[in-house]
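hey so u asked for the seq, here:
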Amino acid sequence: MSEPKEAGATLADWLRARFGDAIPAVPAENATLLSMARHRTMRHYTDRPVEAALLHTLAAVALGAPSKSDLQQADIVIVQDAAQRAALAELLPDNPWAKAAPAFLVFCGNNRRQRRLHELRGHGFANDHLDAFFNAAVEAGIVLGSFVAAAESVGLGTCPISAIRNRAEEVAAVLGLPTHVFPVAGLCVGWPSGFTALTPRLGLAATVHVDRHNDAALDAQIAEYDARRERDKPLRSRRRDDLFGADQPYTWSEDKARQYAQPERRGWGAFVRKIGFRLD
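ran it, structure tokens below
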């Protein structure tokens, strides 16, 4: 199903357009659900600034998201200084919207505060292993998603940038991140300047399971999605035809397989260890 027209489209219409299926029991119309169902990544913005007070309000709302054991291990850096913005944009050459967006934020995991609590209270830190890093990373991701939903509810558009982890050490230097604090993603924020098509997702049968995980039909589900994606939002460019060939249909699955057939972010683990995390 192609994207529904904005006027009069229901929550069921948007979910069907996203996932290709009718949702069995759609709740009554709800403005928050409708806003989230219509989510799009926005990379182009008007010149209208995003007020600092609004960014701080959205940050406060986002930081009210669920927190593992009330540890509160997420931070948001709102980058206002022009020199810092320029330095970060230089580290993100494949993401020109990082430079052009009216506002740019970096979402960080922070396990430093927890360790300081142990110093202040005189208790040993007995969990210096992978989970210490993982909890902070997950919490930063939850806060990022909450910020995106909050921003879209007031009409803003956003674009998360995971590529900020490609140059994590330099990003940490620009932002003054101390040990046990690490960047998870950047986020462009601004007032959208135009329409962006809805990105279809894999059918819910592939990603929503009841009682037990089941991927027995995964190959067929990928094939269905490839065909639907080609129909509703085909990929506009191809990765590395010089390596993989230009003589085959270019589907979502081919694009993702090509992406991870090439090395990416090999220095991330070394950076995480350098800033003090054990990943046992």
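DSSP finds 13 helices and four strands in the chain. The mean pLDDT is 95.
lmk if thats what u needed
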